[in-house]
Design goal:
By secondary structure, this protein is mostly helical. The protein has 19 helices and 3 strands. The chain has 2 domains: about 1-245, no CATH class; about 260-400, no CATH class. It is globular and about 75 Å long. The model has no long low-confidence stretch (mean pLDDT about 95).
């Protein structure tokens, strides 16, 4: 396998502009590839996947050396959301924000592998080969850290001023690069929004500016491992501005939704109810909530499903999920199946449309899915419960952000 300068430049803001530091990082990428090959780590992984992981590692290193802001933005948000710098791994005492750290290297390897394997939970963050490889790459990066040249490729990006109207085109262009090409957001963007398009057929950053579909996707869809919009990533990176909470944006308190009140009346004060069959669900909606029952049924498209959960929130009202009641351990739920939950409940945070996000949050926050586990590796139950919000953001993306 050969890693070329073009492979490496493809992840930089200025792929056609040669910089004096490019050759240094190409040499570093080739060295890591040989190191990996010699270690015989992940022997089942193909060369193309290995190459992309190596490029992600070198891109992360360039990001750190230049303080380009992608990794810094990620750590800032993780500190806000989870009170630690990186999901999945415990923070060591010697961790230094925005600089080189072993758990950062571990995360980059896991994230790159997981994305290329389809975001199916096929890679454990604690995989022994992953940990071995991360330690060796970290030692190499640490050895070179003081003498490594600062990458010259991010200067234009770091000089963006959101208040300068003359930079509108640059802002659009850099947003397109960040969303589609950067090592940190591309894994999700490519998988979620252009899975069928080969790398050779992809639009360039400049072509993105004139493509209505791609431009709309760039600014309307969340991406990256935290399901943020590209505008939110950009402001984090350039202005250190954290996104505002939804509660801050909504202002005054909303009135309770009528269906929330109706469900609580029907259940004796509870916001959740469980039904095995569609007929049971329809009877509840008709007899208890007073919904009209048309001849074809209230929700005919749900006739072939089972294990229903009816759930409501004060803000959004009522929602119905199917095929998930068996995962939720609740005093009122006779359908709970611990064995199925242990093997399947990860679907709630990993499979888009499997479960409404409000029900996901309610279930995990209230300890109602105790047997749910990550699909792979050791400590799978603890891993999922300690990181369920992160997994939901990364795997569900726009479904996580549903309003």
């Amino acid at each position: 396998m050969e890693i070329t300068l073009e492979d490496l430049k493809r992840r930089l803001p200025d792929p056609d502009d040669f910089k004096a530091t490019d050759e240094y990082f190409l040499t570093l990428a080739k060295y890591i590839d040989k190191l990996w090959e010699g270690m015989k780590a992940f022997p089942e992984i193909g060369e193309e996947i290995r190459k992309n992981v190596v490029i992600s590692l070198v891109s992360y290193y360039q990001d750190i050396l230049a303080d380009a802001g992608m990794w810094r933005a990620f750590v800032m948000m993780c500190r806000k959301l989870y009170r630690r710098p990186v999901p999945l791994y415990e923070e060591p005492d010697d961790y230094i924000d925005y600089e080189l750290n072993l758990i950062d290297v571990q995360f980059v390897i896991w994230y790159s592998l997981e994305s290329q394997l389809g975001f199916n939970g096929l890679v454990s963050p604690y995989d022994s080969d992953l940990m071995r490889l991360a330690r060796q790459v970290y030692k190499l990066f640490d050895f070179l850290y003081e003498d490594a040249p600062e990458p010259e490729n991010f200067k234009e990006f770091m000089e963006i001023d959101f208040n300068d109207r003359g930079q509108v085109r640059d802002i659009f262009r850099m947003s397109g690069w960040l969303f589609w090409n950067s090592y940190f957001l591309r894994p999700v963007s490519k998988h979620a929004y252009e899975p069928e398009i080969s790398e050779e057929e992809e639009l360039s950053v400049d072509e993105t500016l004139t493509d209505e579909r791609r431009l709309r996707t760039t600014f309307e869809q969340p991406t990256g491992p935290l399901a943020l919009l590209v505008d939110e990533w950009m402001r984090l990176m350039i202005d250190n501005r954290l996104p505002k909470d939804k509660k801050q944006l909504k202002g005054e308190k909303q009135k309770e939704h009528k269906y929330y009140r109706a469900l609580k009346r029907a259940t004796g004060g509870k916001e959740i109810a469980f039904f095995e069959l569609y007929a049971d669900l329809e009877s509840f909606l008709s007899d208890k909530l007073g919904w009209e029952r048309p001849e074809e049924g209230i929700f005919p498209q749900m006739r072939d499903f089972s294990d229903f959960v009816v759930f409501a929130t004060p803000e959004k009202g009522m929602m119905i999920a199917h095929d998930v009641a068996c995962y939720i351990k609740h005093p009122d739920n006779p359908l709970y199946d611990a064995e199925r939950a242990a093997s399947e409940a990860h679907r709630m945070v990993m499979e888009p449309m499997a479960c409404p996000i409000d029900l996901v949050k309610y279930s995990f926050a209230n300890g109602l899915v105790p047997d749910a586990a990550y699909p792979t590796g050791r400590d799978a139950n603890k891993l999922l419960h300690d990181n369920w919000d992160f997994f939901a953001r990364m795997y569900l993306r726009n479904f996580y952000r549903e309003d």
